[in-house]
Amino acid sequence: VATALGAWLAATALHVGSEVFHQLGHAWAARRTGYPMVGMQMWGIFAASIYPAAEPALPPATHIRRALGGPLASLLLTLVAGAVTLLLPEGVGRWLGLFWFLDNLFVFTLQVFIPLGFNDGATIWHWWNVQRKGVRQ
Fold first, then answer.
1. Is the CB of residue 41 less than 8 Å from the CB of residue 47?
2. Is 64 in contact with 33 (CB distance < 8 Å)?
3. CA 69, CA 57: separation in Å to the nearest integer?
4. Which end of the chain has fewer CB atoms within 10 angstroms, the N or the C?
């Protein structure tokens, strides 16, 4: 029981840490566009980027660049998690490493290709369509 609880706490910490790292990727990309984030809102084990309420209308490319920052940071963390997993010996630690790798790969990186309405993929899809149509929002 103690091992299971410890693994659960470690997996939760790895996920939340990965979420924060993902949001830092958004913050880094947003700062590079000249329209930075002002914070992040935690929603349990997930988070959302917060941008200024009085932000001017931005070109679609700016929104896309800011949305890509998180998945790109998560791709880097996915590679680190994969390398760590390969270096760990058999046992609970390796299973946690595998969880960390898969969590970053699917939840934080590859989600960029699936527009679910609330994720980076939805943001990119929306602004890509706006850009393609030449409409400014």
1. yes
2. no
3. 20
4. N
**Residue-wise DSSP of 18-45:** HHHHHHHHHHHHHHHHT----EEEEETT
Q: How far is CA 72 from the centre of its chain?
A: 8
- Residue 135, pLDDT > 80, answer no
Residues 6+ apart with CB under 8 A from 17: none
The answer to whether the beta carbons of residues 73 and 27 sit under 8 Å apart is no
Place of tokens 């393609």: 132
Q: How far apart are CA 54 and CA 82, in angstroms?
A: 40
pLDDT confidence bin for 133, thresholds 50/70/90: confident
What's the predicted TM-score (pTM) here?
A: 0.92
Strands 46-50 and 39-43, bridge-based pairing: antiparallel
